[in-house]
Amino acid sequence: MRHIAIIGSGPAGCYLADQLLRLDPDSPIDVLERLPAPFGLVRYGVAPDHQGTKAIARVLDRVLSRAQVNFFGNVEVGRDVRLEELMRLYDAIVLATGATRDRKLGIQGEDLPGVIGSGAFTGWYNSHPDRRAPVAQGVRSAVIIGNGNVAIDVARILAKGAAELAGSDLSPEATAWQTTQPIETIHIVGRRGAADAKFTEHELAELGRLERARPVIVDPATLTGQSAVVETLRKFAAEENRKAPVTINFHFNLTPVAFLGDNDLRSVRCRRSDGNPLELPAQLAVTCIGYETVACCTVTPSNGVFPNEGGKVKEGLYVVGWAKRGPSGTIPTNRTEAQQVAQRVSQEVIGLERPGGSALRELLERRCVRWVDYAAWHRLDAAELARAGEGRCREKFTTVAGMLEAAQAH
Ligand code: NAP
């Protein structure tokens, strides 16, 4: 029998647990999560108005519910237990810690209030306990940097009216902020051409169906090339006469060079491909340019990921998900990847009669760590569903203390 611990309970960690169990149904798997609630990006990254995508949490929950799987929520590796300690307790450790730090543009003014990374912004509107509200009020114009699906999520959440957000789990604080900003213009800025945009067609097309916003292509001549995304953008360009209180301006071949302002953000200075400058007024700028992995104790990332060879970092240590390959792919990408890494773990790792979860429990008890097991997570889940007000499917607790209390963690 092998004892395996997975650090991180997002889609990558849960799919890996599932695949390991398929290959070896008798070996226990412990899933450690630094927050009291599981599911990582599904809970705190996927947009709150995309409840269809968030429903994948039910599939992940079934994995955690299995008898051989033990959930240890509110256990942070590095704070409560060292990675090196875990490596002595388990036959193998798998890092599924994601990519939690926003990449930086590295340009002037990036630290101005009003400039925020997409991880911080999407985490905040998803009630992540560590994420704070953007320091921006009276937002008439917002600039979103990046041409990926996160940029689309951010634009949609900013553009939607209250009725369109009904049924979501957008946090009450974010709802209050969003509905009181006088937003008129949202600029989506891509440094390359339309054909190079990383939007997917389905996500992009949704921006054309919003009640109070209309997409505008600032320079239709930039719509060169052939792809489903370019076709969707051409359709937007053809419908430009539609009236709506909010415009979503798509700019291509436009590179941000500085955020300008004294105490608050005033504008984003950009450079066109012909070298000419363009200044976009903005009270809020959200950089949606990807994420990087942060160190886990002594294991440090390089170029935003943990260096690995086919998922193996070193003897007894593996990696999956965004921490392995960078912030790319959709949620099902993790399932395919988990099959490959699980095969590898299964072939390479031998059970050495290490103590696994029983020793971890003792260690956590000795250190007075209040961890959340699967039953406690379900108490927290039920409490969040029960307290959801009118027009909201869930109201998450926004502090770790509140989550632990609702979970009645020991
Ligand atoms: P992404 O798809 O990689 O897009 C990042 C964007 O940022 C690209 O347009 C990139 O431009 C730009 N960028 C990077 N560095 C830049 C810089 N220094 N200056 C200007 N622009 C820069 O990443 P994402 O939008 O964060 O999404 C992450 C992953 O999650 C993706 O796989 C995405 O599909 C997925 N996701 C899916 C959904 C969904 O299916 N509904 C929703 C959200 C996210 P270049 O191309 O020029 O590098």
β-sheet strand percentage: 15-25%
Q: Going across the major beta sheet, what is the strand order?
A: 3-2-1-4-17-16
* Count of alpha and pi helical runs: 16
- For the CA atoms, what is the radius of gyration? 22 Å
How many strand segments? Answer: 17
Helix fraction, binned, reads 25-40%
Q: What are the low-pLDDT stretches, counting only 5+ consecutive residues below 50?
A: none
Question: Main sheet?
Answer: 6 strands, mixed
Each distinct ligand: NADP nicotinamide-adenine-dinucleotide phosphate
Q: N-to-C terminal Cα separation, in Å?
A: 29 Å
Mean pLDDT value: 97
Structural class: alpha/beta
What global shape is seen? Answer: globular
What does this structure look like?
The protein is α/β, with parallel strands linked by helices and 410 residues long. The protein is built from 16 helices and 17 strands. The strands form 4 sheets. The protein has a 6-stranded mixed β-sheet, covered by helices on one side. Strands 6-14-7-8-10-9 form a 6-stranded parallel β-sheet. The chain has a 3-stranded antiparallel β-sheet with strand order 11-12-13, with no helix packed on it. 34% of the residues lie in helices and 19% in strands. The two termini are 29 Å apart. The protein binds NADP nicotinamide-adenine-dinucleotide phosphate. The site of NADP nicotinamide-adenine-dinucleotide phosphate (NAP) has 23 residues, from helix 7.
